[in-house]
Amino acid sequence: MTHVTGTTGTLVLAGTPIGDVADAPPRLAAELETADVVAAEDTRRLRRLTQALGIHTTGRVVSYFEGNESARTPELVEALTGGARVLLVTDAGMPSVSDPGYRLVAAAVEKDIKVTAVPGPSAVLTALALSALPVDRFCFEGFLPRKAGERLGRLREVADERRTMVFFEAPHRLDDTLAAMAEVFGADRRAAVCRELTKTYEEVKRGPLGELAAWAAEGVRGEITVVVEGAADSGPEELDAAELVRRVRVREEAGERRKEAIAAVAADAGLPKREVFDAVVAAKNAERTGPV
Question: Is this prediction's pTM over 0.85?
Answer without folding.
Answer: no
